[in-house]
Amino acid sequence: RCTLGRLLVIYTMRPVNSREEWHSISSILHVDQILQSWDWGELKSRYGWELQRIVWQDSQTVVAAAQILTRSEIRYGIKAKIMYVPRGPVLDWNNTILRQNVLEDLRRMAIREKALFIKIDPYLPVGYGVEAHQDEKPDGVGLELADELTQSGWKESNQQIQFRNTMVLDLTTEESELLLSFSQKTRYNIRLASRKGLEVRDGTSADLNLLYGLYESTAARNGFAIRPRKYYIDVWQSFMEAGMAQPLVVTIDDEVIAAVVMSVFGGCATYMYGMSSGQHTEKMPNYLLQWESIVRAKASGCTSYDFWGVPEVFVDSDPLWGVWRFKSGFKGDVVRTLGAWDFSCKRFGYWLYANVMPSLLRIMQMRGS
Predict the structure, then answer these.
(1) Cβ-contact 62, 295 below 8 angstroms
(2) Element (DSSP H or E) covering residue 55
(3) How far is it, in rounded angstroms, from Cα 107 to Cα 155?
(4) Torsions phi, psi of 297, nearest 5?
(5) Shortest CA distance to 198 belongs to which of 273, 247, 258, 278?
(6) What pLDDT does residue 349 have?
(7) CA triplet 207, 211, 213: central angle to 5 degrees?
Protein backbone atom coordinates (compact mmCIF):
# COMPACT_ATOMS: atom_id res chain seq x y z
CA ARG A 1 0.00 0.00 0.00
CA CYS A 2 1.54 3.30 -1.10
CA THR A 3 0.29 6.89 -0.81
CA LEU A 4 1.21 9.35 -3.53
CA GLY A 5 -0.18 12.82 -2.77
CA ARG A 6 -3.88 12.22 -2.21
CA LEU A 7 -3.87 9.09 -4.34
CA LEU A 8 -3.83 5.80 -2.47
CA VAL A 9 -2.21 3.05 -4.58
CA ILE A 10 -2.74 -0.51 -3.38
CA TYR A 11 -0.96 -3.43 -5.02
CA THR A 12 -2.00 -6.91 -4.00
CA MET A 13 -0.12 -10.15 -4.63
CA ARG A 14 -1.64 -13.41 -5.75
CA PRO A 15 -0.37 -16.69 -7.21
CA VAL A 16 -1.03 -17.90 -10.75
CA ASN A 17 -1.51 -21.63 -11.24
CA SER A 18 -2.33 -22.10 -14.92
CA ARG A 19 -0.15 -21.90 -18.02
CA GLU A 20 -2.87 -20.16 -19.99
CA GLU A 21 -3.28 -17.37 -17.45
CA TRP A 22 0.47 -16.94 -16.94
CA HIS A 23 1.13 -16.53 -20.64
CA SER A 24 -1.88 -14.25 -21.01
CA ILE A 25 -0.41 -12.03 -18.28
CA SER A 26 3.01 -12.24 -19.95
CA SER A 27 1.42 -10.93 -23.13
CA ILE A 28 -0.22 -8.03 -21.27
CA LEU A 29 3.12 -7.12 -19.65
CA HIS A 30 4.99 -7.56 -22.98
CA VAL A 31 7.25 -10.28 -21.59
CA ASP A 32 9.52 -11.78 -24.25
CA GLN A 33 12.14 -13.42 -22.03
CA ILE A 34 11.96 -17.20 -22.34
CA LEU A 35 13.19 -17.66 -18.76
CA GLN A 36 9.94 -16.14 -17.47
CA SER A 37 7.81 -18.54 -19.52
CA TRP A 38 5.66 -21.15 -17.79
CA ASP A 39 7.54 -23.90 -19.61
CA TRP A 40 10.93 -22.78 -18.30
CA GLY A 41 9.60 -23.00 -14.76
CA GLU A 42 8.21 -26.47 -15.41
CA LEU A 43 11.57 -27.56 -16.76
CA LYS A 44 13.43 -26.29 -13.70
CA SER A 45 10.92 -28.02 -11.40
CA ARG A 46 12.21 -31.34 -12.77
CA TYR A 47 15.72 -30.48 -11.58
CA GLY A 48 15.29 -29.63 -7.93
CA TRP A 49 13.62 -26.22 -8.04
CA GLU A 50 10.29 -25.33 -6.44
CA LEU A 51 8.11 -22.78 -8.21
CA GLN A 52 6.09 -19.76 -7.23
CA ARG A 53 4.43 -17.62 -9.88
CA ILE A 54 3.30 -14.33 -8.39
CA VAL A 55 1.53 -11.34 -9.89
CA TRP A 56 0.85 -7.89 -8.46
CA GLN A 57 -2.30 -6.02 -9.37
CA ASP A 58 -4.03 -2.78 -8.59
CA SER A 59 -7.81 -2.58 -8.35
CA GLN A 60 -8.23 -3.46 -12.03
CA THR A 61 -5.09 -4.67 -13.76
CA VAL A 62 -2.11 -6.99 -13.34
CA VAL A 63 0.93 -4.69 -13.29
CA ALA A 64 3.87 -6.97 -12.40
CA ALA A 65 4.87 -10.63 -12.36
CA ALA A 66 7.68 -12.85 -11.14
CA GLN A 67 8.41 -16.53 -11.63
CA ILE A 68 10.44 -17.42 -8.54
CA LEU A 69 12.62 -20.54 -8.33
CA THR A 70 13.58 -21.88 -4.89
CA ARG A 71 15.83 -24.74 -3.87
CA SER A 72 17.53 -25.96 -0.71
CA GLU A 73 21.01 -27.40 -0.77
CA ILE A 74 24.07 -27.97 1.38
CA ARG A 75 27.38 -26.68 0.05
CA TYR A 76 30.64 -26.41 1.98
CA GLY A 77 28.71 -27.27 5.15
CA ILE A 78 26.29 -24.39 4.60
CA LYS A 79 22.60 -25.20 4.49
CA ALA A 80 21.24 -22.77 1.97
CA LYS A 81 17.79 -21.96 0.65
CA ILE A 82 18.24 -19.95 -2.52
CA MET A 83 15.56 -17.96 -4.32
CA TYR A 84 16.05 -16.78 -7.89
CA VAL A 85 13.91 -14.72 -10.28
CA PRO A 86 15.46 -15.37 -13.72
CA ARG A 87 15.02 -12.40 -16.05
CA GLY A 88 12.57 -10.89 -13.61
CA PRO A 89 10.61 -9.47 -11.96
CA VAL A 90 8.67 -8.04 -14.90
CA LEU A 91 7.01 -4.64 -14.57
CA ASP A 92 7.05 -1.06 -15.78
CA TRP A 93 10.29 0.10 -14.18
CA ASN A 94 9.38 3.72 -14.84
CA ASN A 95 6.72 3.39 -12.13
CA THR A 96 8.73 4.22 -9.00
CA ILE A 97 5.99 3.31 -6.52
CA LEU A 98 5.34 -0.04 -8.19
CA ARG A 99 8.98 -1.07 -8.39
CA GLN A 100 9.63 -0.19 -4.76
CA ASN A 101 6.54 -2.16 -3.75
CA VAL A 102 7.54 -5.26 -5.75
CA LEU A 103 11.15 -5.26 -4.52
CA GLU A 104 10.05 -4.85 -0.91
CA ASP A 105 7.60 -7.75 -1.28
CA LEU A 106 10.36 -9.96 -2.69
CA ARG A 107 12.66 -9.05 0.22
CA ARG A 108 9.95 -9.86 2.75
CA MET A 109 9.18 -13.13 1.00
CA ALA A 110 12.83 -14.19 1.20
CA ILE A 111 13.05 -13.29 4.90
CA ARG A 112 9.78 -15.06 5.67
CA GLU A 113 10.97 -18.23 3.93
CA LYS A 114 14.34 -18.05 5.73
CA ALA A 115 16.29 -17.98 2.49
CA LEU A 116 20.02 -17.38 2.45
CA PHE A 117 19.42 -14.83 -0.27
CA ILE A 118 17.15 -13.93 -3.16
CA LYS A 119 18.58 -13.10 -6.57
CA ILE A 120 16.78 -10.98 -9.14
CA ASP A 121 17.90 -10.61 -12.73
CA PRO A 122 15.52 -8.21 -14.52
CA TYR A 123 15.84 -7.55 -18.22
CA LEU A 124 16.31 -3.84 -17.62
CA PRO A 125 18.81 -1.88 -19.72
CA VAL A 126 21.29 0.49 -18.11
CA GLY A 127 22.57 1.45 -21.54
CA TYR A 128 22.70 0.69 -25.25
CA GLY A 129 25.66 0.36 -27.57
CA VAL A 130 29.25 -0.60 -26.81
CA GLU A 131 30.35 1.07 -23.60
CA ALA A 132 32.72 4.03 -24.02
CA HIS A 133 32.11 4.12 -27.78
CA GLN A 134 30.43 6.94 -29.64
CA ASP A 135 27.21 4.95 -30.08
CA GLU A 136 26.80 4.45 -26.32
CA LYS A 137 23.50 5.65 -24.88
CA PRO A 138 22.75 5.38 -21.12
CA ASP A 139 19.32 4.42 -19.79
CA GLY A 140 18.37 6.66 -16.87
CA VAL A 141 15.80 4.30 -15.36
CA GLY A 142 18.23 1.39 -15.16
CA LEU A 143 20.95 3.54 -13.62
CA GLU A 144 18.46 5.02 -11.15
CA LEU A 145 17.30 1.57 -10.08
CA ALA A 146 20.90 0.45 -9.48
CA ASP A 147 21.26 3.30 -6.99
CA GLU A 148 17.94 2.45 -5.33
CA LEU A 149 18.90 -1.21 -4.96
CA THR A 150 22.19 -0.31 -3.30
CA GLN A 151 20.47 2.06 -0.88
CA SER A 152 17.84 -0.53 0.09
CA GLY A 153 20.27 -3.33 0.94
CA TRP A 154 20.66 -5.17 -2.36
CA LYS A 155 24.13 -6.04 -3.65
CA GLU A 156 25.29 -6.44 -7.23
CA SER A 157 25.95 -10.17 -7.50
CA ASN A 158 29.34 -11.64 -8.29
CA GLN A 159 27.45 -14.66 -9.68
CA GLN A 160 25.85 -13.44 -12.90
CA ILE A 161 23.83 -16.51 -13.88
CA GLN A 162 22.69 -15.14 -17.25
CA PHE A 163 24.69 -13.04 -19.68
CA ARG A 164 24.54 -9.45 -18.49
CA ASN A 165 24.76 -8.00 -22.01
CA THR A 166 23.22 -9.13 -25.25
CA MET A 167 22.62 -8.02 -28.83
CA VAL A 168 19.13 -7.73 -30.30
CA LEU A 169 18.26 -7.48 -33.97
CA ASP A 170 15.09 -5.66 -35.05
CA LEU A 171 13.12 -7.92 -37.42
CA THR A 172 10.46 -5.42 -38.43
CA THR A 173 12.29 -4.36 -41.61
CA GLU A 174 12.18 -6.22 -44.93
CA GLU A 175 14.32 -9.32 -45.31
CA SER A 176 16.41 -7.74 -48.06
CA GLU A 177 17.03 -4.67 -45.90
CA LEU A 178 18.07 -6.88 -42.99
CA LEU A 179 20.70 -8.59 -45.12
CA LEU A 180 22.00 -5.26 -46.39
CA SER A 181 22.31 -3.99 -42.80
CA PHE A 182 24.90 -6.66 -41.98
CA SER A 183 28.60 -6.00 -42.35
CA GLN A 184 30.10 -6.66 -45.77
CA LYS A 185 32.12 -9.59 -44.39
CA THR A 186 29.03 -11.19 -42.84
CA ARG A 187 27.04 -10.89 -46.08
CA TYR A 188 29.96 -12.37 -48.01
CA ASN A 189 30.24 -15.35 -45.63
CA ILE A 190 26.51 -16.08 -45.82
CA ARG A 191 26.68 -16.17 -49.62
CA LEU A 192 29.92 -18.17 -49.55
CA ALA A 193 28.28 -20.88 -47.43
CA SER A 194 25.41 -21.15 -49.92
CA ARG A 195 27.84 -21.49 -52.84
CA LYS A 196 29.85 -24.19 -51.04
CA GLY A 197 26.92 -26.60 -51.05
CA LEU A 198 25.83 -26.24 -47.44
CA GLU A 199 22.15 -26.85 -46.76
CA VAL A 200 20.03 -25.96 -43.72
CA ARG A 201 17.07 -28.05 -42.60
CA ASP A 202 14.76 -28.12 -39.59
CA GLY A 203 15.92 -30.45 -36.88
CA THR A 204 13.62 -33.08 -35.37
CA SER A 205 13.49 -35.13 -32.19
CA ALA A 206 15.56 -37.76 -33.97
CA ASP A 207 18.45 -35.26 -34.17
CA LEU A 208 18.63 -34.39 -30.47
CA ASN A 209 21.25 -36.94 -29.44
CA LEU A 210 23.37 -35.86 -32.38
CA LEU A 211 22.95 -32.24 -31.31
CA TYR A 212 24.13 -33.05 -27.82
CA GLY A 213 27.22 -34.76 -29.27
CA LEU A 214 28.00 -31.59 -31.22
CA TYR A 215 27.40 -29.46 -28.14
CA GLU A 216 29.69 -31.68 -26.06
CA SER A 217 32.38 -31.36 -28.73
CA THR A 218 31.94 -27.58 -28.82
CA ALA A 219 32.28 -27.34 -25.04
CA ALA A 220 35.44 -29.45 -25.05
CA ARG A 221 37.07 -27.31 -27.76
CA ASN A 222 36.17 -24.04 -26.06
CA GLY A 223 36.62 -25.09 -22.42
CA PHE A 224 33.20 -24.30 -20.95
CA ALA A 225 31.09 -26.40 -18.60
CA ILE A 226 27.87 -28.08 -19.75
CA ARG A 227 25.19 -30.17 -18.07
CA PRO A 228 24.54 -33.90 -18.63
CA ARG A 229 22.90 -35.16 -21.82
CA LYS A 230 19.54 -35.80 -20.13
CA TYR A 231 19.10 -32.12 -19.25
CA TYR A 232 19.61 -30.74 -22.76
CA ILE A 233 17.49 -33.42 -24.41
CA ASP A 234 14.74 -32.54 -21.94
CA VAL A 235 15.06 -28.79 -22.64
CA TRP A 236 15.01 -29.17 -26.42
CA GLN A 237 12.32 -31.85 -26.55
CA SER A 238 9.89 -30.17 -24.16
CA PHE A 239 10.22 -26.76 -25.80
CA MET A 240 9.83 -28.26 -29.26
CA GLU A 241 6.65 -30.01 -28.15
CA ALA A 242 5.35 -26.71 -26.76
CA GLY A 243 6.03 -24.99 -30.09
CA MET A 244 8.63 -22.76 -28.44
CA ALA A 245 11.86 -24.09 -29.95
CA GLN A 246 13.21 -25.16 -33.31
CA PRO A 247 16.59 -26.76 -34.00
CA LEU A 248 18.24 -25.98 -37.34
CA VAL A 249 21.06 -28.12 -38.67
CA VAL A 250 23.48 -27.43 -41.50
CA THR A 251 24.74 -30.31 -43.59
CA ILE A 252 27.16 -31.00 -46.40
CA ASP A 253 26.77 -34.26 -48.29
CA ASP A 254 24.31 -35.37 -45.57
CA GLU A 255 26.91 -34.83 -42.83
CA VAL A 256 25.65 -32.62 -39.99
CA ILE A 257 28.42 -30.15 -39.20
CA ALA A 258 26.69 -27.50 -37.08
CA ALA A 259 23.35 -26.65 -35.48
CA VAL A 260 21.50 -24.04 -33.46
CA VAL A 261 18.46 -24.27 -31.22
CA MET A 262 16.26 -21.20 -31.47
CA SER A 263 13.61 -20.53 -28.83
CA VAL A 264 10.55 -18.31 -29.37
CA PHE A 265 8.48 -16.50 -26.75
CA GLY A 266 6.47 -13.30 -26.76
CA GLY A 267 7.54 -12.22 -30.23
CA CYS A 268 11.25 -12.66 -29.53
CA ALA A 269 13.40 -15.42 -31.02
CA THR A 270 16.47 -16.27 -28.96
CA TYR A 271 19.66 -17.99 -30.10
CA MET A 272 20.11 -20.08 -26.95
CA TYR A 273 22.36 -22.92 -28.08
CA GLY A 274 24.92 -23.21 -30.84
CA MET A 275 27.11 -26.21 -31.61
CA SER A 276 29.42 -27.56 -34.28
CA SER A 277 31.71 -30.45 -35.12
CA GLY A 278 34.61 -28.12 -35.90
CA GLN A 279 34.74 -29.48 -39.45
CA HIS A 280 34.37 -27.46 -42.69
CA THR A 281 34.69 -24.15 -40.85
CA GLU A 282 36.19 -22.60 -44.00
CA LYS A 283 32.72 -22.98 -45.59
CA MET A 284 31.22 -20.64 -42.95
CA PRO A 285 28.34 -22.85 -41.73
CA ASN A 286 27.64 -20.71 -38.64
CA TYR A 287 26.95 -17.61 -40.73
CA LEU A 288 24.43 -19.47 -42.84
CA LEU A 289 22.78 -20.95 -39.74
CA GLN A 290 22.32 -17.55 -38.14
CA TRP A 291 20.86 -16.09 -41.30
CA GLU A 292 18.42 -18.97 -41.70
CA SER A 293 17.44 -18.66 -38.02
CA ILE A 294 16.74 -14.96 -38.53
CA VAL A 295 14.70 -15.63 -41.68
CA ARG A 296 12.61 -18.29 -39.94
CA ALA A 297 12.10 -16.12 -36.86
CA LYS A 298 10.84 -13.27 -39.02
CA ALA A 299 8.55 -15.59 -41.00
CA SER A 300 7.03 -16.90 -37.75
CA GLY A 301 6.02 -13.38 -36.71
CA CYS A 302 8.85 -12.53 -34.33
CA THR A 303 9.77 -8.86 -34.16
CA SER A 304 13.19 -9.28 -32.55
CA TYR A 305 16.08 -11.74 -32.50
CA ASP A 306 18.20 -12.02 -29.37
CA PHE A 307 21.76 -13.22 -29.92
CA TRP A 308 21.95 -14.25 -26.22
CA GLY A 309 25.19 -12.93 -24.88
CA VAL A 310 27.96 -10.48 -25.79
CA PRO A 311 30.98 -9.39 -23.72
CA GLU A 312 30.50 -7.76 -20.35
CA VAL A 313 33.57 -5.65 -21.12
CA PHE A 314 34.31 -4.99 -24.79
CA VAL A 315 38.01 -5.81 -24.79
CA ASP A 316 39.80 -8.72 -26.45
CA SER A 317 40.55 -10.35 -23.08
CA ASP A 318 36.84 -10.89 -22.38
CA PRO A 319 35.86 -14.60 -22.65
CA LEU A 320 33.15 -13.70 -25.19
CA TRP A 321 35.37 -11.63 -27.45
CA GLY A 322 35.62 -14.29 -30.16
CA VAL A 323 31.86 -14.77 -30.06
CA TRP A 324 31.42 -11.00 -30.29
CA ARG A 325 33.56 -10.77 -33.41
CA PHE A 326 31.15 -13.21 -35.06
CA LYS A 327 27.89 -11.74 -33.75
CA SER A 328 28.82 -8.09 -34.26
CA GLY A 329 28.73 -8.52 -38.02
CA PHE A 330 24.94 -8.92 -37.83
CA LYS A 331 24.74 -5.32 -36.59
CA GLY A 332 22.12 -5.73 -33.89
CA ASP A 333 21.67 -3.29 -31.04
CA VAL A 334 23.85 -3.95 -27.98
CA VAL A 335 21.75 -3.97 -24.80
CA ARG A 336 23.65 -3.62 -21.52
CA THR A 337 21.42 -4.72 -18.65
CA LEU A 338 21.31 -4.19 -14.90
CA GLY A 339 22.47 -7.76 -14.28
CA ALA A 340 21.82 -9.91 -11.23
CA TRP A 341 21.41 -8.44 -7.74
CA ASP A 342 21.19 -10.28 -4.41
CA PHE A 343 19.46 -9.47 -1.16
CA SER A 344 21.05 -11.50 1.62
CA CYS A 345 18.94 -12.54 4.59
CA LYS A 346 21.87 -14.20 6.40
CA ARG A 347 24.93 -12.10 5.76
CA PHE A 348 27.71 -14.37 7.00
CA GLY A 349 26.32 -17.45 5.25
CA TYR A 350 25.85 -15.41 2.08
CA TRP A 351 29.44 -14.15 2.28
CA LEU A 352 30.77 -17.72 2.48
CA TYR A 353 28.53 -18.89 -0.35
CA ALA A 354 29.28 -15.94 -2.63
CA ASN A 355 33.06 -16.10 -2.16
CA VAL A 356 33.64 -19.87 -2.40
CA MET A 357 31.26 -20.70 -5.24
CA PRO A 358 32.83 -18.45 -7.91
CA SER A 359 36.21 -20.08 -7.38
CA LEU A 360 34.71 -23.53 -7.88
CA LEU A 361 32.92 -22.41 -11.05
CA ARG A 362 36.15 -21.01 -12.49
CA ILE A 363 37.90 -24.34 -11.87
CA MET A 364 35.04 -26.21 -13.58
CA GLN A 365 35.15 -23.87 -16.57
CA MET A 366 38.91 -24.28 -16.96
CA ARG A 367 38.50 -28.07 -16.92
CA GLY A 368 35.46 -28.00 -19.19
CA SER A 369 33.81 -30.36 -16.71
Answers:
(1) no
(2) strand 50-57
(3) 12
(4) -60, -45
(5) 258
(6) 78
(7) 120
Q: How far apart are CA 265 and CA 337, in angstroms?
A: 19
Residue 336, classed as helix, strand or coil, is strand
Residue 5 above 50 pLDDT? no
- Coil vs helix vs strand at 349: helix
Q: Say if residue 295 is exposed, middle or buried (CB neighbours under 10 Å; 0-12, 13-18, 19+).
A: middle
Burial of 275 (0-12, 13-18, 19+ CB in 10 A): buried
Buried b (16+ CB within 10 A) or exposed e, 73-103: eeeeeeebbbbbbbbbbbbebeeeebbebbb
Q: What average pLDDT score do residues 19-32 get?
A: 95
Model confidence pLDDT, tens digit, residues 187-246 = 999 999 999 999 999 999 999 999 999 999 999 988 888 999 999 999 999 999 999 999
Distance CA 329, CA 337 (A): 21
Q: Is 176 helix (H, G, I), strand (E, B) or coil?
A: helix
Q: What's the rounded Cα separation, in Å, for the pair 261 and 249?
A: 9
Within 8 A by CB and 6+ apart from 295, the residues are: 175
Query: Which of 77-86, 172-181, 250-259 is predicted with the least confidence, judged by mean pLDDT?
Result: 77-86
pTM, two decimals, is 0.90
Q: CA neighbours within 13 Å on the CB side: how many for 304?
A: 19
Contacts of 361 (CB under 8 A, 6+ apart): 159, 225
Q: Give the chain's mean pLDDT.
A: 91
Q: What is the DSSP string of 147-189?
A: HHHHHTT-EE-S---S-SEEEEEE--S-HHHHHHHS-HHHHHH
Q: Which of 177, 161, 159, 158 is nearest to 169 (CA)?
A: 177
Q: How far is CA 213 from the centre of its chain?
A: 23
Side-chain half-sphere of 192: how many Cα atoms within 13 Å? 14
Q: Is 240 helix (H, G, I), strand (E, B) or coil?
A: helix
The answer to whether the peptide bond before residue 228 is cis (omega within 30 degrees of 0) is no
Give percent of the chain above pLDDT 90. 80
The H or E element that residue 170 is part of is strand 165-170
